[in-house]
Amino acid sequence: MANADRVIAELARGQHAVLTGAQAVQLGVSRKALRTRAGRGSLVTLGGDVYLVAGAPLTWEGRVLGLLLAAGPGAVASHRTAAALWGIEGFNKGTPELTVPRGKRFRRNGARVHESTDLALMTVRRRNGIPVSDPARTILDIARRTSDERLALAIESARRLNLTSWRALIATLAAHARCGRPGIVRLRRVIAENVHREEITDSDFELMVLALLVERGLPEPALHHEVRDAQGRLIAEVDLAYPGHKIAIELDGSDHRRREVFERDRPRQNALVLAGWTVLRFTWRDYVERPDALVAAVRAARSKLTA
Q1: Do 51 and 95 share a structural domain?
Q2: Considering its fold, how many domains does the chain have in total?
Q3: Fewer CB near the terminus (10 Å): N or C of the chain?
Q4: CA angle, 15 as apex, 12 and 21 as ends, to 5°?
C-alpha cells in the first residue's frame, strides 16, 4: 500500500500532479489500488483514466497535460497553447488547445481540439514536461486564425527567443504546402513581406516558390532536377522542374547578381532550349510583388505543353 502511494507520488511529481491509470499499472500499481484511492479521495478522477493527486492544485499546465494523457498517443499541445508554452509574445494561458490524429474524435468541455492528417510532419518537443508542437509548426498553426500583423509579431518574438529562424519557417511552409491548407497563405505572405532577400539563401527562395505553386493547386515541382541528354551527359541542374512537361523554372537569387554567374547561365539556358525545354525565369521581386503572374506563367506553360 505504501509502495503504491510512493509510485503514484513519484509519477505525478514529474507530470504536474496528474497521471493515468495505465501509467500507474505499468509501474506495478493495481487497478484495485487506484479505485481504492479514488474512492477515499486521495486521487481525484479527471476523466478518461486520468487522475489528479488530491491536495495538489490543478494548474493550467496540469490541465493541458491531463487532456493530452486522456487523448492518448499522438496528442500534442498546439496552436495558442503551444505558443504560450514556448513563451511567444502575445499568447497567454487560456483555453487549452491540442491536436490529435485525424479520426480520433476526442472531445472535452473547456478545450479546443483539432484533428490533423499531417502530424508526421511535426517535430514533437517537450516544454515543461508537456508534448508540444515545434516552434515553426506552432507559427503555422496560429497563422490560421490571426492577423498578418499579429503573426509577424509572433515570428519576431520566436526569432528573438532563438526558437526558430527564417530557414526553419520556410522549410515548414514548403513541407506543409497544399491547396486549402489553413494558415499557409498567411504565413507565406507574412514571410515574403518581412524577410529581407539578404536574410535567406537561394535554396530558401526555391522552397518558397515551390510552396507558392503547390498552395495555388499546381503539382509539386521537382527540386534541383538534373537534365541529361540522350547519352546521359548532364546538360544542367535546374532549380525547379516539371520533367514530364520539360519545364525548367530558374530563380535568379543573390548569386545571379555576379557577372560570372550571369555569363555562365546563358549557354546553359541555350542548351536547355535546344534540348526541347521551356525555361521560365523569375526574380525575388517577381515572387514578392507579382506572385499571381508567376503562378499564371507556370500554369500557362503547363497548359500549352499539355494541349
Answers
A1: no
A2: 3
A3: C
A4: 55
